[in-house]
Amino acid sequence: MDNSLNLKDLNSPFLNFVESPLQYLHKAVLKHPFYEQLINQDLKEGQFTSFLNQQEHVWRFLSEEMILLSKLNYPKCIHRILVQNAQLSLMTAGSLSIQLDKFKGNACNLTTACKEYIGFLKALTDKRLFFSIFAAILPRFWLATHLHKRCLKLNTHNHPYKQFIKHCITINAEQQTMKIIQSLDDLIQTISKAEQAEMQQIFMDAALHECELLNEAYKRKD
Q: Nearest CA to 30 among 146, 122, 134, 118?
C-alpha cells in the first residue's frame, strides 16, 4: 500500500457500495450533538465519563478478539491487519482507561448500548468470516480517523476535555482504516450479491450501534 495515500484520495469500490450507510455515519455519528458539545466545552462530566467507559470497553473487546482471530489460519495479509488492529485497539483502550481513572477512579459496568454493540460484534467474530468482521469494525476505525482530523484543528488551551482531544490526535487510525477498506475492496467484487448485501447491512448495523452509544451517553443527566 502506498503510505502517501489518504482516505480522501481513495477510490474505493467498497465505500461506493456502502455510500448510503457511510453518509449516515458522517451525518448522524461524526456530527452527533455529543461531539459538538464536547468540542464546544458544553458537555457535562457525567456524559463524558459514560462515553469514556463505553469506548474503553468496546476498544478493549476488539483488541482481545483481534488477537484471538490473528491466531487462526487466515492469509498472511489478513493476519497482519488483524494484529495491527489489535495493537491499535489496545493502545486506544489503554489511553481511554487512563482518562477514565482521572474522572471516576475505575471503569463502570457495561451500559445497555455497549452490551448490545459488543454482542453484535461477538456474534460476527464467532463466525470467523473476516470480511464480515472487517465490515463491522470499519465504522469505528473510520470514525477514529475523522475525529483525529477534526481534533488536529482544535485549540486545547483550558479545554475541560483536552486529554481526550490529545488522545484523538495521538491515535491516527487512517493507515489502518485504509488497509481494512482495501481488503474489502479486493473481496467485494468476488462474492455473491447476497453476501454483498449482507456486508452492507453489517456496516449499517455497526454505524447504528455507534450512534446508539452516543445517544446513550448524551442522555445522561448528571
A: 146
